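R.M. (postdoc): so does anyone remember the format we settled on? I'll just put the structure tokens first.
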């Protein structure tokens, strides 16, 4: 993520110092969301997957965009385990917690 300094310098270089305020607000929102996600991951992946499963079961339409992994509904169990293990490593959570729902 960009730093506050990155944003203010970029806005100044573009000749739009006023844009920095909006961009800094967005940065704060992204940082808060990121913190909440990491905090939730530390509780284990099973609860997150159960919440997503419930949402999918209630949905009438599902639209998915994935740029780096196969969309969840198309994943095999082995592929999903690898993705969960990678996520556990990146977010420093327990790999055991990431496989409890598979």
């Amino acid at each position: 993520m960009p730093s506050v300094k990155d944003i203010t310098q970029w806005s100044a270089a573009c000749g739009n110092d006023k844009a920095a305020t909006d961009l800094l607000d967005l940065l704060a929102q992204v940082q808060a969301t990121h913190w909440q996600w990491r905090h939730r991951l530390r509780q284990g992946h099973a609860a997150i997957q159960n919440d997503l499963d419930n949402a999918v079961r209630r949905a009438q339409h599902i639209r998915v965009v994935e740029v780096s992994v196969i969309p969840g509904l198309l994943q095999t169990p082995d592929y999903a385990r690898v993705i969960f293990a990678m996520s556990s490593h990146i977010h420093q959570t327990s790999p055991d917690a990431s496989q409890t729902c598979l």
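R.M.: ...and that's the designed sequence above, right after the tokens. Also worth knowing: The longest helix spans residues 19-42. The helical segments are 4-13, 19-42, 45-58, 77-91, 95-98.
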